[in-house]
Model the fold of this input.
Amino acid sequence: MQTLKTAMAAAGRDIADLEMIGSTRAVLPDDNSRADLAQALEAIPEQMAQGFTTFCVKPSQFTDAPNGVGAFCREVMHRVESLTA
Done:
């Protein structure tokens, strides 16, 4: 990150203007299972400490129920709030 910050400053830009997008790392244990959400979200606090402010989560890695995506998203938000409080 320091290299990027230095290069942007040299170009007259501020790294604070760059949107940092992080993500979860889903581990799928086999071809028929979904990833563990709690495990995938464990990296979020560290990424936030590094300046990431937006995060991508792919619901299909964690649920097979299209009608449950709303509840899934609420669960993600609740878990992230708990991890970063």
